[in-house]
Every structure is written in structure tokens, then in C-alpha cells.
Known about the structure:
By secondary structure, this protein is α+β, with helices and mostly antiparallel strands. It has helices at residues 8-18, 27-31, 52-65, 123-127, and strands at residues 34-42, 45-50, 70-79, 82-93, 96-109, 112-119. The mean pLDDT is 94.
Amino acid sequence: MELRALGADEARRFAQKWLPAWTGNRPELLVSFYTDDTFYSDPAVPLGLRGRPALLAYFTKLLARNPAWVWTQRGSIPLEDGFLNLWHASIPAGERRLELDGVCTVQLREGRIYSNQVFFDRTELLRAGRSA
């Protein structure tokens, strides 16, 4: 089996399409980037979710609470079937914006994400009374 990783240019092109779907409360658009059998986890769901129906239900609630957050890519590192995405999130929290950095695995099959595991310190979100 050959290792297939995305280089920096490929990862950036994918992220330029995918990350904007996290903004604007469009869960159907966001979930369209994921395979039917996808696996997703983040600090709020550390055991993860499997499949697009579970992911759509989660994204529907998450994006409704955070319609104006903005995610950008800071860089990437090649990873089997994809890349490790180094990201920045700007999240409105009352009168201020939280500026958070983290990483997530992005593993692709036929152009869609089959595994996405998100890692970051959510202390500031919890202090602000927000959850992600």
C-alpha cells in the first residue's frame, strides 16, 4: 500500500474550500465534505461520531450556536491520506473575539473526509460560556 499524503499546496486548496463551510450556519454544506462512513471527533465529542447523519445532527447544533466564527489554515503537515491541518479560529464571545489555534487530522477518500479529529485547548471557550 502506497502512502498518499497531501502536500502543502493540495492541503491549502482543500482547506480554502472546506474551512469557509464552517462559517455561516450551513451544516448541509459542511457535511457535504465528509464521506457517508466518516469519523469525526473534537474535545466536545472525544469518543467521536460515526456517519453523516450523526455528523449532520452535531453540526446543525454547533453551527447554529457559532454562525459567525471564522476558521483559517495556518499551515499543514503531510499525513497518511491527507494532512494535519494547523488552524486558527476567530470566535465571537459577547463583546470580544476569542482567537484560538489548534490542529486537526484531515484524511480523505475520493476527495471527501473520512476521518477528522480536532484537537485544541478549549479553556477560553469554556470561560466565555461557549462550547465547541
